[in-house]
Each structure stands twice: as C-alpha cells, then as structure tokens.
Amino acid sequence: SQQGEEDPQALSIQEGENATMNCSYKTSINNLQWYRQNSGRGLVHLILIRSNEREKHSGRLRVTLDTSKKSSSLLITASRAADTASYFCAASGGSYIPTFGRGTSLIVHP
Amino acid sequence: EAQVTQNPRYLITVTGKKLTVTCSQNMNHEYMSWYRQDPGLGLRQIYYSMNVEVTDKGDVPEGYKVSRKEKRNFPLILESPSPNQTSLYFCASSSNRVWANEKLFFGSGTQLSVL
After folding, report:
1. Inter-chain contact A42–B106, Cβ cutoff 8 Å?
2. CA A41 to chain centroid
3. pLDDT recorded at residue B96
C-alpha cells in the first residue's frame, strides 16, 4: 500500500514561477521526506520533516506539514529549467520504513 | 565517496533464465531495500532488510528473492523471470537508527527487460 500520494500528477510552469506539489498520507507518521528523480535516474533526497515540525526550508525549497490534515506540501521558489524532474514524497510510520507515492512530474519551461 | 552501487545498469534476458542484480553500499547502513518503478505506479517496495540475516517482504515480493549475508550487500534474485517483471529497479540504503539521518541513498537503477 502506498502511504504517500502526490498531487498534481503533472505540473508545467515557466522559469521563475513557483511550483507547489502536495502529498497526502493515510496513517500517522514519524517523518515525511521529499525526493527528486531526474529521468530514469536514482532518487535524490531533498528534505526530511519530522512529525513535530510544521515547516522546513532548504535553499529554494520550503516544506510544510499539517498532521491534522495528513498532508505536506513542497514549494520550489523561482523555478529553473534544471528543476525539471519528478518529485516524490515518502512517509514513514511506526516502522520508520518510508513508503513512496506515484510522484509529480514537473516541467519548467525556459 | 558514499554511494550505493547497482549492477548491471541494463539487462535483457529471456523468460525463465535466472538472474541476479547486485547492490552494494559503503556507508555501513543497516537498512537496505529494493524497489521497482513502473509508469504510473511510482516506486513499489519489493523486499527490505533491517540488518544482516533479517529480510522482510514489501508490497510486491512475488517472483523475487533476496539475501543479506553481509551488511554491505543485498542482491535481488529472479529465479524464473517473466515479462511482467520488466521494470526499472532501484536499490536503496539508510541508517535505521531512530532519530538518525534516515534519508535513503539510491543506486543508479537497473533497467530489466524480460522477453
């Protein structure tokens, strides 16, 4: 079963715009992580937010977590063509084993 | 350099011919896992291992075997591959110590085609 589910499935924006992706999960979590995947390559970790945190920043990335709504969002500010990739959330429950969603495909047009 | 090494990168085989995809990590990680990625289905976990000699089924274990005899290696075995196992496979590892840095490190992937 997939714990995390991303929305939208696909997102197309212009360079310089902000990109927002959402993730919903089903059961209570210990942490939630976001990963990036360039076409056909291995996933790369972006950011981890714990269940007792509400917001976290890393460079142009901002992640929020709302445990009451069982949802998280990833905001990429001032997007660049190089941000074109698929983005996945992975939620970890009591076992700390992360479960991935289907991903959001982001295209940033120059 | 900290890394997860998967081999081979590409593999074409025929139905029923046993194959092994190797995975090795140099970070002394306890946790290792195999995923398959198919269009529209995201990453689905096949098997995982919390430590040496400890393995468990993920969401889609049918048709696969694993072993964890050493901490650094976690091979994926397909004893009798079938066309529905054509997929992109990823190995990943992390430290599973609670409140440690649990982020997963991924290998570069193995694109498997079963004819």
Report:
1. yes
2. 17
3. 66
The Cα-based distances of A14 to A27, A81, B42 in angstroms read 35, 8, 25
Mean pLDDT across chain A, nearest whole number?
Answer: 92
CA–CA dist B102, B111 (Å, integer): 26
For residue A24, count other CB atoms closer than 10 A to its CB.
17
DSSP B73: B
Binary contact (B96, A31; C-beta < 8 A): no
Contact map slice: B 7-36 vs A, CB within 8 A: 31, 33, 35
Chain A CB within 8 Å of residue B111 CB: yes
User: If 0-12 CB within 10 Å is exposed, 13-18 middle and 19+ buried, where does residue A10 land?
Assistant: exposed
Q: Is the pLDDT of residue A1 over 60?
A: no
Q: Give the residue ranges of DSSP H helices in B1-96.
A: none
Consecutive 10-residue averages of pLDDT for chain B (115 residues): 94 96 95 93 92 93 97 97 97 74 88 97
The residue behind tokens 């076409």 is A39
Cα torsion A49, A53, A57, A63: sign: positive
